[in-house]
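Entry for S-adenosylmethionine complex. Fields follow.
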Amino acid sequence: MTRQAPHGAFPEINHDEMARQDFAQRLREYVAGDIVGGNDAVYRHAVEPGFVHSHGRKPETRKEVRQAMERHPFHQAWGALNRATQEIIWDSVQVSLDRQDDALNQRVKDTGVGKGSLRLNPALKTPRYVAAVDIHCMPGNYHTESTEDDAYQGALLDRGAFIYARGARGPNHDSFGHDLLAYLDKAQPGFQPRRILDMGSGPGQVTCAFADAFPDAEVHAIDVAAPLLRYGHKRASSMGYDIHFSQQNAEATEFEDESFDLIFSCIMMHETSAKALRNYVKETRRLLAPGGIAMHMDFPHNEDKTPYVQAMIDWSTHYNAEPFIGTLGDTDWADVAVQAGFSHNTAAVVPMSTVAPHNHMYVLDARKPG
Ligand SMILES: C[S@@+](CC[C@H](N)C(=O)[O-])C[C@H]1O[C@@H](n2cnc3c(N)ncnc32)[C@H](O)[C@@H]1O
């Protein structure tokens, strides 16, 4: 089992808490790895033939697949277990965090290592698409604060997301950053950005991968959620990274026009509304310097997926509080970029599998000519 690398903000985890969290990680492996394929077999051998028998044709939409699958006992049992596992993961981390809340907040506040900076804006309004739902059932979502200097949600996300990913993103939970760097290296070999922006950085694991790859660049990370930024700043600075974290909405930032030559986001798009997506691709264009590159990476496009595959991805829309996954998959990201002012020949949607075979996401590659 891959272990998460500790850092200066990492919560203390005692023996019993680790045993509980290991159980949650193993359960997640079981549900998302060992038995998830049973759905494919059930669909192929029972659900699809049954649908053909009663309708005279195969299901044509993910909704038809979902409704037919929901009647099958295996899918019902798998779905219930998948949802329960998600809740068990958060619970296993919360039990540990609850007993050390004040000490953790104090440790995160007490930075003093590395350079970087942290700038919070208590007046910033949390967008409704973040505030209204506990995304992926994470209690309190990203933004909730109950005390001054609260970093709890940062620790909950750092640890919970690692367990959810079954450690597959590496000990620093940053493999998506390395995949994006591999994409950049292939798309624009030798590119040396001077100013980099990570939109929706969360606890900043991916931001650190970019800071590592471009040690001479000025690196900025923005997010709407103060607890994640506090935690991310402590995490990054304790690891020696010089990253500037600030609380800003990616739809309308405080940065000047054309102030970054590399802008990226990692799995932020599927957590924003359609309107917000358009706004922050527009903001990306405003912030991009001539010759600059933007990379926004997220969940697969639906157009090249069968209704069954779409339905399995869309399971999270209906049962794991991820309201925008399905609609993001239906959206033509390149068209969003063109609407935002990028030209047709400088905006493309590329499968990440071209550089990272295990990565099933896509990247919106949008550029501003030099
Ligand atoms: C799924 S997390 C991804 C975090 C990080 N990029 C990663 O790869 O682990 C999505 C993040 O986007 C942030 N976010 C959502 N909407 C945002 C917005 N309009 N402006 C800035 N951050 C936003 C959330 O607060 C959350 O931290």
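NOTE: The chain has 14 helices and eight strands.
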